[in-house]
Amino acid sequence: MFFPSFLSPTDVGILLGSRVWEQLGKEVYPALDAALTMAGAIRETKEALENVSGCLEMLQEGTEKLHTSLMDVTEDLIDTLNDSACMATQVASTCNLIRNSLNQLIINANYSKLPGVNPQLVKVNEVLKIDLSNLIQKGYAAFNDTPELVQDQTKDILSAVPHIKNILENVGSNITAFTKKLPIQKILTDFTVYLTQCEAYVEDYFPLVEQYDFYRWLGCLILCCMMILILVFFYLGLLCGTCGYDKNATPTTRGCLSNTGGNFLMAGVTFSFLFSWVLMLTVVVTFITGGNVEKLICESFHDKTLFQILDTPYLLNRQWKNYLSGIILKNPDIDLTFEQVYSDCKDNKGIYATLHLENLFSIHKILNISMHAEDMSLKIKYININLSNIVLLSNTGKENLLNFGSSGINEINFAAYLSEINKSITKIDLLLYANDLEARADQLPKGALENALKGHANTIRLIHNQQVVPLEQGMKYVRARSTLNQSIKLLQKTSLELPEKVRSVISAIEATQLLINNNASFIIVQEAKKYMDTILGYFEQYSMWVKDSISTQVATCKPIANTIDTAVDIFLCSYAMDSLNAFWFGLGGCSILLIPAIICAVKLAKFYRRMDTEDVYDDYLHTDLYFCGFPPPPQLRGTVVTQTGTINSSGNNSISSRKSQLNHPV
User: Fold this and answer.
1) Rounded to whole angstroms, how far apart are CA atoms 506 and 401?
2) DSSP character string of 388-439
3) Cα dist from 106 to 99, 231, 424, whole Å
4) Nearest 5°: phi and psi at 107?
């Protein structure tokens, strides 16, 4: 049997623990994974806050220097434009234009006004002082020890395992005993012995059978020879009579060949009368035998009415309703018929199902384990385990998550950061402004004012080249703006409903912890029941296979049906009866046809044989020759003999006769 390998006490604990672990894992792992993801988000948030703080400080430092430089050059331009030289009428308008454009010499991206993220960074650093990932990994490890905990706590139920093993082992022993109890081997052995005895019996009487078969063959040959002899006489008579017939010869002057033909015909008639009683008696006997066997056995065998006759209640035994079940099962009330057995054997079913042997020994009772299943269920019902030692996340870890949720990340003004990042460094292109300033200076008269304005233009170009260009194109500042942009977007994404996310993670962990603490016993009972159902399912499959094998595959009885078909249909009906019926039908047909043959032979013999006296023809139309289809001799046509005389062999009349010549046409 295959059950012991499934029911090792050690394996039961580990297997049940693994199944409980798999079942609880559907709830535990998603909760722990969410907490672990949140721990990773805390680390990423810290890195993002540090990047924001560092990049913001760097950009603030660069823009602060630029702002100072632009303010200085603006003050210098104001001082120059306040000079008395700008009061002249021809330059006043130009100076006013320059004075009005000074408000454009300012920075555009003012990082100094952005609020810092140091408060949030401080809170996140406080959160990270506790290693949340380590606490979660401890939860993973504790939960992964579930199989061992279950194995340790199910030792009290493992005592039921040997009992369950014994139940299934007893079933297996019953199956083995049942297979030994089946008398199939004994039946086959007895049948083999019976066949051997039959073979020996046939071999003992086979010479006698061959001898009587020779007599049968000889008798049939004699009968056929009788018929052939008669036919030979008739054919020789027709042949000789037809070939030797002379239409000009008188009955007394017919030739030897014609006379021989007539004698042959009469010989055939004689032998017909001698043999006809033997032939007809043979036909009657063979007809009665062959016809009855054909109708009563062969045809009824083909349409199965023979089996219906044999299945007629109380026919073969007046005290038994069903003869076959009375012989085999010792219970004539069981519906076991010849027709059903023959049909099942034709379908190649097993002897157990065909002969209804379940009435003698039922395999269904042996393989029925429903009561054992109830016993197993009662033992499994009282399984109780405690997994409260498994802690998925301690209170410290939960508090750590709550602190992260209240770290204030969602209070950062992300829109202001993104707005400043996307702005240009200065409000106006300093090179364009310097070129425009220099062009306006060229419109002024030559002098100190022109030179001063051109000097300021060069200063602005220098500020652009030394400060603006590095801020716009320098790798340090470009990377700082890019990092700041990415970090702000990451923080913005993390901060979306952060407190709700944290509470959701904590709620999932607490719900899973409650499931482990309160429902572990229920789950272990369910999994143990599933495990036992699996074992019972294997057994049911095995029992179904045993039932099917015994019913349809073990000791199939198609050879019995083939033997019956061979004995009845082929040997008795096709070989024996068809030959016998063909024999009597042919012999009977020949015997019947002898009647017209005798009549014709007698009639023809009169006109072929040589007569001792002449026949008197009273009228040609009423003569026997006309009846047989032969014309009278020419010398008698139109002649009527009124007195019969004796004619000798030389043709002379021994007595006088008077003939009257009739001149009527023939």
Assistant:
1) 8
2) TT--SS-HHHHHHHHHHHTSSGGGS-HHHHHHHHTS-SBSS-HHHHHHHHHH
3) 14, 149, 11
4) -80, 150
Please, what is the Cα angle at 189 between 336 and 572, to 5 degrees? Answer: 60
* Angular region, 617: left φ>0, alpha ψ -120 to 50, beta rest: beta
For residues 258 and 246, the answer to whether their CB atoms sit within 8 Å is: yes
- Hey, how many other C-beta atoms are within 10 angstroms of the C-beta on 193? 10
Give the distance between the most distant pair of CA atoms in the chain.
211
Could you tell me which residues come within 8 angstroms of residue 428 by beta carbon, excluding any fewer than 6 positions away?
Answer: 104, 105
3 state SS of 665: coil
CB burial of 535-551 (b: ≥16 within 10 Å; e: otherwise) equals bbeebeebbeebbeebb
DSSP annotation of 664: -
First CA to last CA across the chain, in angstroms? 111
Q: What is the pLDDT of residue 117?
A: 79
Rounded Cα distance between 472 and 395, Å, is 50
| Mean pLDDT per 10-residue section of the chain, whose length is 666 residues | 48 71 82 85 84 81 80 82 74 79 78 79 82 83 79 62 62 64 62 75 83 87 91 92 84 85 90 90 91 87 81 81 78 81 82 76 68 64 69 81 79 80 77 82 77 83 82 74 82 81 84 79 75 75 77 76 84 85 89 90 87 60 45 46 36 35 32
Q: C-alpha distances in angstroms, 40 versus 45, 133, 269?
A: 9, 8, 128
**Interatomic CA distance for residues 394 and 147, integer angstroms:** 22
Which residues does 30 contact at the CB level (< 8 Å), separation at least 6?
A: 508
Q: Copy the structure tokens of residue 207.
A: 């010479």
Residue 486: how many other CB atoms lie within 10 Å: 14
The distance from CA 206 to its chain's CA centroid, rounded to whole angstroms, is 55
CA-based nearest residue to 390, from 195, 633, 590, 139: 139
Cα(454)–Cα(460) distance, integer angstroms: 10
CA-angle at 61, arms to 58 and 63, nearest 5°: 110
Position 123, amino acid = K
Taking CA atoms, 15 is separated from 6, 528, 557, 641, in Å, by: 10, 9, 46, 132
State how far the Cα of 65 lies from the Cα of 463, in Å rounded to an integer. 10
Q: Which residue has the tokens 């660069």?
A: 62
Alpha helices in 82-183 (DSSP H): 89-100, 118-128, 132-144, 146-153, 160-181
Residue at token pair 């992260």: 404
* CA gap 456, 449 in Å, rounded: 11
Please count the other Cβ atoms lying within 10 Å of the Cβ belonging to residue 213: 11
Helix (H), strand (E) at residue 640: strand 639-641
Amino acid at 158: L
Q: How many Å apart are CA 56 and CA 416, to the nearest integer?
A: 13
Element (H, E) at 661: strand 659-661
- Would you tell me the crossing angle of helices 160-181 and 370-381 to the nearest 10 degrees? 170
| Token digits of residue 485 | 């942009």
Q: Tell me how far CA of residue 152 lies from CA of 39, 145, 155, 161, 387, in angstroms.
A: 33, 11, 6, 15, 11
SS3 at position 192: helix
Q: How far apart are CA 188 and CA 186, in angstroms?
A: 5
Instruction: Give the gyration radius of the chain's Cα atoms.
Output: 65
Residues constituting the chain: 666
The Cα–Cα gap between 265 and 269 comes to 6
Q: Which amino acid is at 523?
A: I
